[in-house]
Amino acid sequence: MNPLGFLRFWSCISTTSLRHSCSNLTTLLSRSHSHPTYRLPVSFMSTGPAGYRAIFLGPEQKPKFVEESVLLPCLEEGEVLAKVRAATICPSDIHTVTGLRKEPTPSVLGHEAVVEVVESRRRDSALRIGDRCTFSIADSCGSCTPCVSELPQKCKSLFKYGHSHVSIGGGFTGCYASHIIIRRGTHIVPLPAEISDRMGAPINCALATMVNCVSHLSNKRCDSAIIQGDGLLGLYGCALLREMGCSKVYCQGKRPNRFPLVTKFGGIPLAADEPIPNEENNIDVIIEVCGSPDALTTGMRYLRPGGTYIIAGMVHPRSELKVTGEQLIRKCVTLIGVHNYSPTHLEAAVRFMVSTRNKYPYEEVVGQAFHLREIEAAVSAASEKVHHRICILP
Q1: pLDDT tens figures, 285-319
Q2: How far apart are CA 365 and CA 232, in angstroms?
Q3: For site-directed labelling of 229, which of 75, 82, 118, 327 has its Cα 20 to 30 A away?
């Protein structure tokens, strides 16, 4: 047993249950987080193996985040303790911080990261201490109807990292922390040395989701495509489609400063409202990742009869579509909704990045790196959308 494992083992057997002790800690948290200057009592600071985390208090709080140092909970069967090497800020977290998206608070946000295995209680796993890994953002049971129907991201007992109350799962369930506890139903994929931490952090969100999107095109004609959205999903989509043999991939967006990267990822950059000459009723595939319901109104003009329309960006309630059933029927459109991904898509995403690492500038999509204690500044920088991702280093 490694020294850290021994210390954690001794810590567990010398208390009634550290996981139960965390419930007492959570009671204090729930009482104290209403105070903007909250800090953990000294009695809860670690005297042994410890970690720290940025607690999000809520969009109306000042400050919005506080940093805590706490004992690392004992692992349960099937769990893995991992050190967060690098995390990136997904736009969904910006929506949470600004109040556009409602999540339980207090919480530890963050779901995009490269992690390093510190301890594992997965008996049937080949994971080794020190392995660099990515992991699925959804934890699932593996036995309910959605799980056995290849939709584990819709598990009836679904748990998502970076979206839960701090009282759940030992409190280390988000990536804006020194460590994260990966649950037993979470798929973990080791990362080869060819993928740097900066390259690998967004794999388990943007890239895996886009792999899921294009997986629906395996038996469909795809010589031309439009991607609506020039965010990271759009960039990854350009590369994926080009590698599938798509000769023309238009990528529409609202930020001209992103156009050079669109080109580097194989796309043809266009302003969101810019007409595409000679392409009406001619495009094989359209993938929406911009979040705007108006995109479908425009896109339907370009989609050919029998074409495929994939929508993946409108994950919010303000997404009422202005498309009639008659339009879909008369054009014989295949309309597909995609949300998150399955373990097979995550594995394929890692393989794709490894095989194309020298062709596309994956490092360039991640901008400035901030320390975890600078998280409010990091979120502010991410909100400016100069870079596709901002990095947080614990």
Answers
A1: 999 999 999 999 999 999 999 999 999 999 988 89
A2: 7
A3: 327
Which H helix or E strand runs over 68? strand 65-71
* Burial of 44: CB neighbours in 10 Å, binned 0-12, 13-18, 19+: middle
CB 286 within 8 A of CB 307: yes
**Among the listed residues 139, 243, 235, the one whose alpha carbon sits nearest the alpha carbon of residue 184:** 139
Q: What is the pLDDT of residues 188-244, one digit of tens each?
A: 999 999 999 999 999 999 999 999 999 999 889 999 999 999 999 999 999 999 999
Query: What is the reported pTM?
Result: 0.89
**In the block, residue with structure tokens 């850290």:** 4
CA–CA separation, 196 vs 39, rounded Å? 34
Q: Which helix (H) or strand (E) holds 252?
A: strand 248-253
One DSSP character per residue, 164-191 reads SBTTGGGG--SSSBSEEEEPTT--EEE-
Mean pLDDT for the chain overall? 89
Residue 140: count other Cβ atoms within 10 Å of its Cβ.
24
The amino acid sitting at 44 is: F
Cβ neighbours of 195 (radius 10 Å): 19
Q: Which CA distances in Å does 13 have to 8, 74, 76, 121?
A: 9, 10, 13, 16
